[in-house]
## 1
Amino acid sequence: MRTLAFDGRMGAAGDMLLGALLAAGADRDALSPVEDELPIEYAVSEVDRCGIAAARVEVLLTDADSDGNGFHDHAHDDGHSHEHTHDEHSHSHSHTHDGDDNDHTRDHDGDDHDHTHAEGHGPSRTYAEVVDLVEEMGLPKTVKADALAMFEILGEAEASVHGTDLDGTHFHEVGADDAIADIVGACLLLDDLDVDRVVTTPLSTGGGTVEMSHGTYPVPTPAVVEIAERADWSLQGGPIDRELVTPTGAAIFAHIAEGTESLPPLKVDTSGYGAGGWNLDDRPNVLRALVGDGAGRLRRDEITVLETNVDDVSPEVLGDLQRTLADVGARDVSIVPTTMKKSRPGHIVKVICKPEDAERIARRLAEATGTLGVRESGAGHRWVADREYETVALSVDGEQFEVTVKVASDTDGTVFDVSAEYDDAAAVADQTGLSVREIQQRAERMVRE
């Protein structure tokens, strides 16, 4: 399985992600659709970050005087009301950083400022206006779907923070053309790399505070926290008091990446580094990307586990729980004999379900058994095989019989279990006089061969 792995120890911002993808082998020409539709260009250069050669991507205006897209000439300095982490504009709030300490400098990498950076330029847009713009860009179907999903993540986070709904969300800087260039550009480069899986180690948020239009907020910012709640990966503080994870970067990673505590086993084919805007004295301000072949895996499935203890429920009711709880969303039901208080025999009923189904299933469990309480355990996910069903035709004494066979495999397609469905095998056994075991073995053998 072709895997793209990110090392998140210096956070994630849109410009760093673009640089990392290009350095890891994505084609610069893949960005052309954005440059064709917006008055921007991607300026790509190689810079040094503490001895690491990294790709630096800056989004520049191609027509600073154009007002058709809301552009206007605009000078930059470190006290600008919408300066941002890693030199990539990210917030839907204006904010300033804590000021320049001696531990880092803003590095424009030789830019003579003849070109205007696109940070925050262009109109601020509503969520609906951003969707319309992306829809009209003529992007490949999968690229468009990914970009829209990322903007939906951003919009839902902003709506949650501000107590509004998605349609009423108004993007400020993240609706400007440079942020659109970051998100759509990342989708185009990911499509060009053509990987099967994306993972990231924990993303370092940095620390300290940022000044935003609503006041002073701790890092990570509210939007980043909202996005992280919906993401598979985890956050960690440090290693410096700066904002290292931006909402734009978080939204991209929330859509594309699974979390992992450390880099997975990987036969590395290519690797590269994307540079952030700060040139730090003691550590490289880069996002590292590695591309290569990784081992197949089981699929991670978000679940919760409900449990209750009962000692006065009839066997008939217990036996029917498999059906009644499955009707309201249970994925699996187990009933385990146990000994309860005063040495009374009883049972523990365990139910695996999706978190969103838990309340409904708990009520049905209480109604069916009369239990006075249902507890939810701390399980957050399970690892499951991909399952496919094949129908085989068995020939017995010249007559054809169909049997369904379940095939379990990892994400690489490596099969590790083949199991004929009992009900089908039992029906064929009744008609042919053969044993259920014989029917199952024949059907499974046909699939394996």
## 2
Amino acid sequence: MIICHPLKLIFIKTKKVGGTSFEIALSSYCDDGSIITPISPKDEESRRELCYPGPQNHQTQAWPDGNEGTQAFFNHMTAGQIRAAVPQDIWESYTKITIWRDPYDAIISRYYWEGMDKRNIPFDQFVGHFRSVLSENRRIAPLNGPNSPDIFLRYEHLEEDVNALGIDDLWARFSSLSAKGALRPKRGADPATVFAAHPDTADLIEQEAAGEIARFGYARPVATPDPEALKRTTASAPGDMPSGSGAAPDPRPDFIFTLSAGRTGTAWLARFLGENLNIPSVHEPLDLDDYGTRLPSIGHMRHFNTYGMDGPVCEFWEGRLGELQAPYAESNHTLGKCGLIEALVDHGLAPRTTTIILRRNLAKQIASYINRNDFFNITTPWQWYLHPNYRNNILDPSTLTPMGEIGTAIWYALEMEARYAYYKHLYGHQLRFVETTLEEATTADGAARLMQSLGHQRRALLPPKMNASNTNDSTTEALVGEIETLLQRVSFDPEDAAKGFIQRGNRLDVPALPRQSARAGKVAAE
């Protein structure tokens, strides 16, 4: 995105609309105080060759009125996030523009951009399973309301609409660029041909995008289909998309991540995946330069669990996911508490990813936290776990935290159970979740089932235990027994907790709403 002070213009960048080329062209009008967010290294090289200004002021700002800011601006930032980050007078006085594209055409572009054709994923299955991409640009640039842009440049009439802005030479500079192009076949990938093969998908788009279709006068494509294109977009994959929680289009994912509480066997899982799948597999990146870049910092963790997917968190994920190279696995449990699931969906990686929900016997898991004093010093839950004082928690901790460290550890374990249910409920139709436990996965049969869920039939190798706590067995057994007794006294259903949180209008990726009643999200203890 760009805030160009000389033109008094804010560019809100939507997806698959030629936005990067427009951004490069628009940056040529920016002064030293304008805000320009980074784009891909290849596109930055193109911008440098043109001698246009590159990324600047996207982390610290000096506003025209003399005030300074430390807001984080990033690629594909939503209009609402921009509005919250800029001074009110700039939002109100600057012209907000974006680019809009016929949804029938845009979804085809997204299909080829994600490489679904190369993986033999039929077009209709891609759209049906990942229909959230149809509303993605409406989330970035709402069609109506206080965050709606002033001007929508129509992708189909860009020359006319860009020239109507009255900015000298902008169309010439823009039209000479072609960033991120040439992924779509020249023949047989036009909307008329594709939707002749997939009329039900056209019905779905007509329903999902009714508002923008009516506003911009888009029409359902109609034409005689190209027989070769019919074969390309309807060819069956080796196996149909599996049903159930978040069916992924390919049983062998490009990326594997973990949603887990920690002290659940994530170090063991990283080694298991690396040795059995023969792919790069990381537990927790702990090199000096990884903190804040590959591993969320305390600031990132606190921001997400207080404000949701705000500027610093989104900027972290821009860099983190931008460096991924398939195949890759990572069992770092902090990611799932810092917007991993939201980021995978927002960055279009959900179709290529499987997320393993890894659990452990709950009493033993909680005992491990207690034995290590994990909730004694506040910096440990800030960096590695969750804190009961965060605004964006699903469970009200007030009935458990008076019990001290053991109560806080129980609250955290139950909060994570509620978050597993929350993510499956909200994102299960977009992202494939595979569930296992440490106790199951470390057996021959359980490991074989886990391998099969990842698309592999061969016999699994079982690594030895890792990161086991060095505590007296009798002491641990007594503590586990005490925790089991406490858990039996707690009335808790993770599904009910997650659904109640959602039904009250809450989401983890936005700032928390005030709790609506004293019992909202509360754990009942007998």
## 3
Amino acid sequence: MTPPATAPAANNLEAFFMPFTANRQFKKNPRLLARAKGVHYWTPEGRKVIDGTAGLWCVNAGHGREEIKQAIARQLEEMDYAPSFQMGHPKSFELAARHAAMLPGDLDHAFYCNSGSEAVDSALKIALAWQRARGQGTRTRLIGRERGYHGVGFGGISVGGMVNNRKQWGVLLPGVDHMPHTHLPAKNAFSRGLPEHGGVELADELERIVALHDASTIAAVIVEPCAGSTGYLPPPKGYLQRLRQICDKHGILLIFDEVITGFGRLGTGFAADFFNVIPDLMTVAKGISNATVPMGGVFVRKHIYDGLMNGPENVVELFHGYTYSAHPLACAAASAVLDIYKDEGLFQRSAELSKYWEDGMHSLKGLPGVTDIRNLGLAGGIDMEGRKDAPGARGYDTFVKAFELGLMVRQAADTIAMSPPLVIEKNQIDEIIDLAGKAIKATA
């Protein structure tokens, strides 16, 4: 047997099967990032790139935070790993208590995992288990939304509504239905903040689905408060409030997927705070640990947790979890991140910068082929007119051109989305907007 090489082969890109990437296209012209600090990346050649997307919507406190590195190092020295099955470690309980204290309403329990995808599948399982525990075992149907993104587990892609994430995998979970998406460009194009039109009418589509299937079969509804991966779609006014009313009326659980909106993106701790709508379950990831150590979670309302705490005390209440649930390093990182958010007032900072960000985003109106601009909090999406017989080509070219100019953006079809770290300065927002505008013009 040939012993393994002691050093990797130079410039060998072939072995890594990259996620959500056109592998062959990328490896012919790779875009590599070598280091990061603050709101910037640097390429291996030393070229500086401003991070207009907080990594993947996740590096809310900026890159290279010494406080987080030190917390992880201390924890690694103290204890590298502890299981959470029938065992525990202090930092997991401390972190859950800190999260419970900052959450709105009676969201007061935390179930930890390792990603947004795992958080969604965990939330769906908790919803089904709770309905069964209260004697509503016929409630097995799950309702998602068109253009929704809820990760890549089979539960998440089943309730999700982005066709390319679904079409390869067959029939997915049975008994899933979808509400319409909330993007109404004919009525709401170039909205500043929440769109005016369609909120209640779109939410009332849930009543149609209830009438079709009967409430006795529906366990939960899951939505992103602001649909992120599809190109950033803030909900029309009144939409989330109406969903809450309908779910309460019919005994259906409401799940907010706050993997993107959680931890300050809208200028509040969570979108639930911003909209004053308390979901029954909330999924989080990304900003929970500033993306330093993979972590996700489900925040659970008291009556949901209490409803599962039945039967003999020696019986496991939820047969679900992960080897790395509440990993000590993740808990140490997440606790350090909470300190940064609090000490630097980053949620308030996000709120204060939102209007400046909005003005910058909408200054791009009128550029060649720009058909819509949307924003809420420190995030936004820009739709561009696609090329005939080449859907997504202009969006990809704009993404690549932006990187060449020194800006990271996200691309979804012919839309680019941006969501800078919450530590961004006004002059850096100006730079992001300027470079985005140049990239859009260059690919018209």
## 4
Amino acid sequence: MSGCRVLPRLPLRRAFSHTAKHSKPWLPTGAYQSLSSPRGRALETYTRPSASVRSLVAYHATTKLQLLSTATDPNTSTSALPAPAPYTPPQTGLLSRLPRSWVPYAELIRLDKPAGSYYLFFPCVFSTLLAAPLASPVAAPAAVLGTSLLFLAGAVVMRGAGCTINDLWDRNLDPHVARTRLRPIARGAVTPRNGVVFAGAQLLVGLAVLLQFPPACFFYATPSLLLVAIYPLAKRVTYYPQFVLGLTFSWGAIMGFPALGVDLLANGAALAAAGLLYSSNVAWTVLYDMIYAHMDIKDDAKAGIKSIALKHDKETKQVLTGLALAQVALLAGAGIAAGAGPAFFIGSCGGALATLGIMIKRVNLKSVKDCWWWFVNGCWITGGVISLGLAADYVVRYVERDERDEPDGEAST
């Protein structure tokens, strides 16, 4: 086009001079309302009759201007695309009851979305219940319950710290993803400086919780901090950041053993059980986070964020099936190494296989709402049946130990 000019880095087109006729003769009257916003509004501004004859319209030449089919009728008007909804403070739920200045920090740790804390907590429960019969003597129910409650507190705190660190790394990416653009750091409600201070405070609280466990737990837990820090970077360099997340979130599958006094370095069966349980939880984490990643798959592609959902979009169900089978097989291996009984294999392994199969069959990966439902509820469904099977096995073995010890006690009297 003879009227074109090329400026550095931005293709420009010069508007036609206004005459008595419309400046864009190939567009019907009122068609600018049909153009994508904000380009439609820009064109309308510079081409209406009152504009200067030498008006310059700048827009990306690579963008295809599209008209709705109704735009061909001069008497038909269409509305421009709606602007993204602005942030509105929570009106219901727990966050609505907090002081206004606390809300951004509560949102930063996802206080209103606790599913992540549960996913971090379940591996701790699995390892605690699996390790309890291996302790010498067998851990008492009070010890198992107390240890589990400490793990719950630690999971809530460390999940919040992990979310804060993640949002600090992603502060320049989150504004480009619809689901994350209103996160506190992304929208400017929390400054990066305050985010760093807040993350540090949470890590100190996590340390205080950790120090309530036996001293050996400190040395087992410390390496996990490196994984917490590098996970947000993984999504920039690999299509499998979920694997790094699995290594991070599954760390609790090891911690239950030293928490109950089981020395992994001196007990080969316990070490094998812990390793297999950890691997099983890694497969589970990749599985559920692959479903989670499908909620952002379009925005991730635009923002250049990598995920396993993008890499294997066309064969997601097959990958999920393979992960489920790997998870159950490794879980069964952990039970064999720990000497678990039928209650574990039927309840935990059989239950996990059934619930994962139902989820994989029913989840609609094209529906954000459906992916979110299965992500939240799948945590309790699968994690719950595994925990119940482990708990049943622990109770059976604890009772059997009492029955074996009772005759010895009577003979001594």
